[in-house]
Design goal:
Blueprint: H1 5-21, E1 28-31, H2 36-39, E2 47-50, H3 53-58, E3 65-68, H4 75-84, E4 88-91, E5 110-111, H5 145-150, E6 160-165, H6 177-184, H7 189-192, E7 195-199, H8 205-215, E8 221-223, H9 229-237, E9 241-245, H10 248-255, E10 260-266, H11 268-274, E11 284-292, H12 303-317
Parallel strand pairs: 1-2, 3-4, 4-5, 6-7, 6-9, 7-8, 9-10, 10-11
Helix pairs in contact: 1-10, 6-8
Amino acid sequence: MGHLVGDTVMHIAYIRQLKNLYPNCRIGVLTNDRSRPIYECSHLVDELINDTFFQCLKQRNKWQLYLDFYETYNSRHILKTALLSPEATMIFHKTPKTYYNTDTLQNYTFHCPPPNGAHMASLLQTSVLSEYFLIPKPDVSLDTNYIAQNGKHYWQDNKLHILIAPQGSIAKRRIPPQEITSLLNCLNPQIIQKCQFLLCNTQGSVDYLTTLKMQCPNLNIALSPPTDLHQYLSLLAASDLVISVDSGSAHLACAFKRPLLCFFANNAINIAKWHPLAADGVPMKIVFSKLENSIETHSFSMEEAIIWLEQTLKTLSTRLKN
């Protein structure tokens, strides 16, 4: 749980839970350029602190409770905790190492290991805080109004805006383009005519787009412009639906309450910890690979995905102007 997009979205849930428990509390978040734009979409964070040794030293003795969500020990995190010197520190799951473990390190006040299979956004629900409060269920939602306005220029008017994000931050976590085309080619042509598709601009996306265009010649699809994280947030927030592999884009779709069709490797541990958290009433469909106990993101059965996507697009299309 660091500064990756998925990690940051999970932290939004914790921030909201803490504000619910302590409405007048002041919340500071250690952040960097990879996560700051996401926190800036939340009105619940009181102070964004650069995650550096110098800033941790400047924050020394200023905080009452430090929630350390990192799942591994390393020297940098240990030193930063020492520099912060909060009144109390709460840790959760920590993978033990030879020299760094909960027995050899006494730099925490509360150790709240989650049960097996716990979701990454549910850790407060089994922490010591749950002995005193009813912890609200995780809610990762972010404000979309302003940021979606900034992203409208990416999209054509009077079309359904579909963002395809088939690759995660790990290049191997990718849906093969042939499987995406097998999905799109089975949709009703009348529905397809109402859609504009943008392919997320990432490593290998030019070749990916070439395959999609060749195998789906009637598809209104283009490559999104290169974007920084601020721009990508506005692009996604202005979309009507997201098709994504298991990645930060899937979690952002839930945060911005966009309908989501998501493809996951058939790995029970990862599914339990990282399945997307859609808001109540927002359509979501997760499709699992047919390869059991695998981390591979291919070999998906598309039958249910086709039915779900066509029905969702049909519902969304009623919003278009005649």
